[in-house]
Each structure stands twice: as structure tokens, then as C-alpha cells.
Design a protein that fits this description.
Layout (H helix, E strand, L loop, with lengths): L12 H9 L4 H14 L4 E7 L12 E6 L6 H8 L6 H4 L16 H9 E11 L6 E9 L16 E6 L5 E9 L5 H12 L19 E5 L10 H4 L6 E7 L5 E7 L3 E5 L13 E6 L11 H4 L8 H11 L1 E6 L2 E3 L12 H6 L10 H6 L18 E7 L20 H51 L14 H20 L3 H69 L5 H33 L8 H11 L1 H6 L6 E3 L11 H21 L5 E8 L2 E8 L24 H8 L2 H7 L6 H9 L5 E4 L8 E7 L1
Parallel strand pairs: 1-7, 12-14, 15-16
Antiparallel strand pairs: 1-2, 2-6, 3-4, 3-6, 4-5, 8-9, 8-11, 9-10, 11-14, 12-13, 16-17, 17-19, 18-19
């Protein structure tokens, strides 16, 4: 029997298990290295990307550098701590030397996570030698390819150099070379967002230590897009409401809420105590993601609608919504990542679980909510919430991060945390229900006042009451629309007072009835707009008639030429006959072109399906339809400056075409009446609207007539347009063109307003005299 001791040995494969397999995401691997810089009392950490973008793999130069200004490491510290796996240093020295920071690194995972990012790691560290004025510089190279399975970890040498220097700047540089993966723009944007939300540590002073100025992480990556940073944090106090919670040393939960139309509320009556969560604080904001089409607007729901518009909220919250968790100031993944439902919120919403806890029975009754089983049907999804939960391992030691850095060990403390957050959110939802009730009441009052005003104005104009059965001759649309709004809000108000058993049936009945009436009204509006489009074809008829007159005149001339040639027909004159033949073909081509354009207008008028219209195509067709008139009167061809991709919202094709026909024909008229020759059709996308502007350099329009010209039958309020036309255009052409019904701009306005758009004359600069602008949301 041999009496000897046995000793463990470690296979190099362990590094792969701890690095590549245990840490499965690049940004988590990087976050572990960032924590090392924080533990070293660094104030700043720069992460530099060099040739790391996808497409540069073949260059072999891909590199990531982490440069910090911490206290650095001496050779002995690298040897005894960095090179030792699972050192108990954090347990022995839980706080940093200079600022007294609670150390966040754990079990040395960071150094082995490097293997996931790159094939080689180089450490360059400068540290001040204790009780000396000198510094020590140390460089160590780790070639992970040398640590192969089947070799002994402790026997693989790592090349290094170390030397003493008279002066230096403490800090550490980690160089990750030979990247295992190069990064696409989208991958980098995700990494950037994760890095920027990694830490929430600010300046602070801890007893017995220097004042901590805070920890700042900077990305230096010029080859990648800058991105927008942590937009979610910017809207914490701009959404509907912000909930703040604190768990006291006794385990009591104290809640505060600041919300739109609700004000400041407090709640300390959760009966359960949570001593295992003492010291935890959280702040959660609710930002409703408004995706519906009705009259709901950002200013109806957000406390700061200037900062948080409806479209901005959609972009931010869908991408970045979620409740994040921080342990000792550093983020714990995956909590708060998109589609991470760690609180089971989305699952409950999808299953329509609408019950509230019985502890809220009293407050529910106060708000007029009698059925707790449906009180949570308005509960927000994860992407409507953005929040931060702060946990201190010193005050709340029960939370332990899993070895793979993916969340906490799911012990009792973790389960109780979920319980507290869910109860807190229920309290906030009850106040949101109250907000909706108040909003409906306020909206109804506003709608009722608007309806009363519209009704009185209608009765004054028509001389008949709204209850009269006589045919209406005035524009009744304002009073009809306000009546729809009153009915819709009254239906919601009445339904909210019914028992739950009857509420759904009542809502469906009101909704169905209103939809039938509204669809009928909208159909009438469609036909009205189509009729307006048909009326606009008068201008096209002029162009067509003028072209026909010119064609007939040419045909008469050619007929005489044919007769003359038929009588003589000598060979030496065949060239003249050939020229005539070409002229006849050219004229016939122009005739065909106008027939095609006229047929196109008829086709557009017949199409009653709304769709997104490409503005440039319509503008070019309209501009071309005036070619002969432009050429005949020696005007310059209209310039169309519209992006290829610019579209309107869903509209009738005939509406867009008629709007452009009226605007361009007006520009042609004022140019003919004056000395103008130029027309510009411009299209742009501005502030989420489609903007069309038509410029001319004709007779101009004084500001005092800018509103008048949109009134029906107001053809020439300043008395200069048709006077100028008569002086330059023969009577027969002027008669064909028409002296003006004054309906053109009125028709444009009536087509735009149902889409909440507007048409107006705006100031412009030389050489232009007039600019009319159409804005379509």
C-alpha cells in the first residue's frame, strides 16, 4: 500500500467551459470586463473598436480595446489574483481601495469571457508601487489557442514582460485581438444600448474613502453608427405616470405615483411585509403605446407631449421597453430586454387575466370599480413600461447572480420581488382606470360644447333647426362630425355605468350602430369628393379642346397640300410630301397622347378605393397634360421636384389628381395673366406629413386675399386675373378656359380637410410670386 497524497489537476478545457459556453452573449462577456474596471476604481473606461465591422474578417486586424484609468495591477497582483481561478479576493476585500466601491466582479468570469470575444488577450497594466515613487509596467499575452483540451491548465506558459518605470499613469488596457466574430451595424447598436444601460452609478461619497466621481463608459467606434443611446430613460417622467416604490427596513412597501390628471398619490397599505427585500428601490414609468387610429393623441396621455410624441413613444417603447434590474449599480441580464417577460405580465395580458388582488378592494370601490375580476384588463404590456429596480447586495444579500450571469438564482427573495412589483403595478393600473374615466368625462363635456356651438352656427346659417326635416342646403359636415363624437363618447360613458354582464353587449350594440351611420356618411363624403374631381376635369377639357382645334387646323392645311400634290406629283417634290407625312404622324401622336391622358383621368375618377399614392407619378402626369398649352403660349415646362418614394396617406387617386390639376392650372392662369413663365411642383416629407407646394412667378396674390380665394364662387377677388388673361388670350380660348367658377380651391380644401390636412398660401422668395401649400397628415 502506497501512502501518498492525491492532488487535483485542471484541464485547459475548463477555460472554454467558463468562457465560451458559460457566457453565451457578447455584451454579457463585455459587461464582465467593464465591471473589472469599476472594481479597479476607474473613473473612465473607453471601449475602442478597430476594424471590427463585418466585411473586414479577411484582414485579420479586428480588435477591441478596453482602456481604463483605474489603479492598475502590479506584476504580483496579476500573478496572484488575475492568474488564479476563482480567487476569494472579493470576499476578503469586498470594497475598492480608493473610492470604497462595492466590488461587482465574481469568480473571475470576466477574464475567461474574453475567449468568447477574441482568440488572444493582451494585458498592459501600469500601477504605482506601494511605498515608492516608482511605477511598474506589466504586459501579459494570453493565446487562448494554446489552452487546448487535454493539456494541463497550470502548465501552459503565458509570455510576459515587466519593468519598473520612473513615471507613469495608472490604468489597464485589455486588447482583444483576432475577433471570433465581426459585428454588423444592428449587432453593434444592440451592444451599444446594452453597454449604455449597464451602469447607473453616479458620484457619491462613502465614509472613510475619497469622493467617488462616478463611472463613465465611452464607446470609440467610428466605423459604426452612433445610435440614439438610452432613449427609454429620457421619457421616464414624460409618459402617463411614474410609480416609485421603496421597501423599508421593516419590510413595509411604500408607493408613490405621479400621473396625468391624477396628480401625486401615496399608498402604504400592502398588508404583507417583505423583510428579505429591505432596501430595494424601484421606479417604473407607464408610457402608453398609442397604435390606434381614432382621436387619441399623445397630448391626451403624456405629461410632456413636446418631448414624447405618439410616434416617438412607439419607436422607443417597442424597442426599449421593459423593467431592468440593477445589483450594486450594475445591470443584471436578461431582465428588461425586449420580449423578456420575467414578471409574467405579457402572459397574463394575453390570457385576459383581469383580476386584481383583494387588498385593493377598498380603493377599487372608491374609484367606482365593483368587479375586481376585471379591474386589470387595462394592464400594460412590457413594452409600455420602462423601469429600474435597484438592489444592494449589502442591504439585501439574498440575491445571487447565476454563474452564467443570466439572471438571479430563483430563491424566495426573487419570488417575493416579483410579487411586490406585480402588486405595485396593480395599484398603478387602478389609477389608470380612474384616469380613463376622467378622460371620457372631460372629452364628453368638450364634445358636447363643440356640438352645441356647431348646431347653433348651423341653425343661424340655414335659418332652420337641426330637427327640421327640410333638405339642407348649407354645409352640414361640421355639425355632423361633432354629433358623431358626442354619440361615441356618450356610448362609452353609458356603457361604463352598466353591470359587467350587460356592459359588453351594450358596447357592441352602440359600436355597431355608430359604425353603420359613420360608414354611410363616409360613403357620401367619398361621392362628394368624386363629384369634385369630376368638376375639376373642366380644365382638362379646355386643354383637350384647344388641342383638337389645333389638330383640325393642321389637318385642313395638310388636306390642301395633299390636293396640290395629287395634281402635280412630280418626283422632285416627293421630299415635301415626306415632310408632310412626318408632320401628320407627329400631330397624330400628340392627339393620341391627349386621348390617353383624358382616359387616365376618367379611370382615376372611377376608382373608389383609397390607397397610398406616389406623388411624383401624379405630379408628372398632370404637368405633362399641360405640355401643348405651355408650348403654345411659350411658357417653361413645369419642374417636378418630388422624391421618387414620397407617398400620400391612403386617398382616392382622383382626389390627388384633382388637387394637382387645380393647383397647376391656377399657376398656368396667373402666369398667362402676368409675365410669368415658370412653375415648380415640389414635394417633401416634413414632420410625418406629406407636403406638396406649387410655385409660380405670375401676377402674385396679396395677403388680404389668401383666405378669400378658398371661398366658393370667389374666382378673382382682386380683379386682375381674368383682365390679364383677356388681354393675352383670344376670346375663343378664354371662353374655352372659362372665366372661373371660383370652385377650384374650394374643391381642393374640401378634399384635404377630411384627412385633417390643410391648404394655404405661404410666403415665398424671389423669383417666385406665389406658393400654395397642401399638407396631408
Amino acid at each position: 500500500m502506497v501512502d501518498e497524497d492525491l492532488k487535483f489537476s485542471v484541464d485547459s478545457q475548463l477555460l472554454g467551459e467558463l468562457g465560451e459556453r458559460l457566457v453565451t452573449r457578447n455584451y454579457i462577456a463585455l459587461s464582465e470586463l467593464i465591471k473589472n474596471a469599476y472594481d479597479a476604481d476607474a473613473k473612465n473606461l473607453k471601449i475602442r473598436f478597430i476594424s471590427a465591422k463585418k466585411g473586414l474578417e479577411k484582414t485579420g486586424k479586428g480588435e477591441i480595446q478596453l482602456i481604463d484609468d483605474g489603479h492598475g495591477m502590479t506584476f504580483e497582483e496579476i500573478k496572484n489574483f488575475w492568474m488564479r481561478v476563482a480567487t476569494p479576493m472579493k470576499l476578503r476585500d469586498p470594497t475598492s481601495l480608493r473610492f470604497g466601491r462595492r466590488k461587482t466582479g465574481n469568480k473571475g468570469i470576466g477574464r475567461f469571457a474574453c475567449r468568447r470575444l477574441a482568440k488572444k488577450l493582451t494585458i498592459e497594466s501600469t500601477a504605482k508601487i506601494s511605498k515608492s515613487k516608482e511605477f511598474e509596467f506589466t504586459k501579459v499575452i494570453f493565446d487562448w489557442g494554446e489552452f487546448k483540451a487535454g493539456t494541463t491548465l497550470t502548465e501552459i506558459p503565458c509570455k510576459y514582460e515587466t519593468r519598473k518605470i520612473d513615471s507613469g499613469k495608472p490604468g489597464t488596457i485589455l486588447k482583444l485581438t483576432g475577433l471570433t466574430e465581426h459585428w454588423s451595424d444592428n449587432e453593434f447598436i444592440l451592444l451599444r444600448r446594452q453597454v449604455l444601460t449597464l451602469s447607473i452609478l453616479g458620484a457619491t461619497r462613502r465614509k472613510g474613502f475619497e469622493e467617488d466621481p462616478g463611472f463613465k463608459v465611452q464607446l470609440d467606434a467610428p466605423e459604426f453608427p452612433e445610435g440614439e443611446g438610452d432613449l427609454a430613460d429620457q421619457v421616464m417622467d414624460a409618459g402617463w405616470g411614474t410609480l416609485q416604490g421603496q421597501i423599508m427596513p421593516s419590510g413595509e412597501v411604500h408607493l408613490k405615483l405621479n400621473a396625468k390628471n391624477i396628480g401625486d398619490k401615496k399608498f402604504d397599505d400592502i398588508p404583507n411585509k417583505y423583510p428579505q427585500l429591505a432596501g430595494i428601490q424601484y421606479k417604473i414609468a407607464w408610457v402608453p403605446v398609442l397604435t390606434f387610429e381614432r382621436a387619441e393623441k399623445g397630448e391626451d396621455y403624456y405629461r410632456n407631449p413636446k418631448l414624447l410624441t405618439k410616434s416617438k413613444a412607439q419607436k422607443i417603447m417597442i424597442d426599449q421597453g421593459g423593467i431592468r434590474v440593477y445589483l450594486d449599480g450594475f445591470r443584471v441580464y436578461p431582465y428588461g430586454e425586449p420580449r423578456n417577460d420575467w414578471l409574467d405580465i405579457d402572459k397574463d395580458v394575453a390570457r385576459r387575466l383581469g383580476g386584481a388582488d383583494r387588498i385593493f378592494k377598498a380603493i377599487s370601490s372608491e374609484f367606482g370599480i365593483t368587479d375586481l375580476s376585471r379591474a386589470m384588463l387595462n394592464h400594460p404590456r412590457n413594452n409600455a413600461l420602462v423601469g429600474i429596480i435597484n438592489i444592494s447586495s449589502e442591504k439585501t444579500p439574498s440575491f445571487e447572480v447565476k454563474l452564467d450571469r443570466e439572471g438571479f438564482v430563483e430563491n424566495e427573495a426573487y419570488t417575493k420581488l416579483i410579487e411586490v412589483i406585480r402588486l405595485s403595478l396593480q395599484w398603478m393600473v387602478l389609477h389608470y382606470n380612474r384616469f380613463l374615466t376622467l378622460k371620457v368625462d372631460a372629452s364628453f363635456t368638450e364634445a358636447k360644447d363643440a356640438f352645441t356651438e356647431a348646431k347653433e352656427e348651423f341653425e343661424t346659417k340655414t335659418g332652420q333647426t337641426t330637427l327640421s326635416k327640410k333638405p339642407v342646403t348649407a354645409d352640414s359636415r361640421p355639425v355632423v362630425k361633432s354629433a358623431f363624437n358626442v354619440l361615441h363618447l356618450e356610448a362609452k360613458k353609458v356603457a361604463s355605468t352598466l353591470p359587467e354582464s350587460a356592459k359588453k353587449e351594450s358596447e357592441e350594440l352602440f359600436s355597431t350602430a355608430l359604425n353603420v351611420i359613420e360608414q354611410s356618411y363616409n360613403q357620401s363624403e367619398t361621392y362628394r369628393n368624386i363629384l369634385g374631381a369630376v368638376a375639376s376635369t373642366g380644365v382638362m377639357m379646355f386643354v383637350f379642346t384647344h388641342e383638337i382645334k389645333g389638330l383640325i387646323a393642321k389637318l385642313d392645311t395638310h388636306a390642301k397640300t395633299i390636293n396640290r400634290l395629287l395634281d402635280k406629283m412630280p418626283k422632285d417634290e416627293r421630299e415635301e410630301f415626306e415632310q408632310f407625312s412626318k408632320s401628320l404622324g407627329k400631330t397624330r401622336k400628340r392627339f393620341d397622347q391627349h386621348i390617353k391622358i383624358f382616359g387616365l383621368m376618367a379611370e382615376k375618377t372611377a376608382d373608389t378605393h383609397r390607397k397610398e399614392i406616389l406623388v411624383k407619378d401624379s405630379a408628372s402626369e398632370v404637368a405633362e397634360s399641360f405640355d401643348y398649352l405651355i408650348e403654345y403660349y411659350k411658357l417653361n415646362k413645369p419642374v417636378v421636384d418630388v422624391p421618387e418614394t414620397l407617398k400620400t396617406r391612403p386617398m382616392l387617386d382622383a382626389e390627388v389628381y384633382s388637387i394637382l390639376v387645380n393647383l397647376v392650372s391656377n399657376a398656368v392662369k396667373v402666369n398667362l395673366a402676368g409675365n410669368g413663365k415658370n412653375i415648380l411642383i415640389e414635394g417633401r416629407r416634413e414632420n410625418n406629413t406629406t407636403v406638396i407646394r406649387v410655385y409660380d412667378d405670375g401676377i402674385g396674390l396679396p395677403k388680404e386675399y389668401r383666405e378669400t380665394v378658398f371661398q366658393p364662387l370667389s374666382a378673382d377677388p382682386q380683379g386682375t386675373l381674368y383682365k390679364g388673361l383677356k388681354e393675352k388670350i383670344p376670346d375663343e380660348d378664354l371662353a374655352a378656359l372659362g372665366r372661373g367658377t371660383g370652385l377650384g380651391l374650394s374643391i381642393v380644401k374640401s378634399m384635404i380637410e377630411p384627412y385633417n390636412g390643410k391648404v394655404q398660401f405661404i410666403d415665398t422668395k424671389k423669383p417666385w410670386k406665389t406658393c400654395i401649400e397642401v399638407v396631408i397628415p
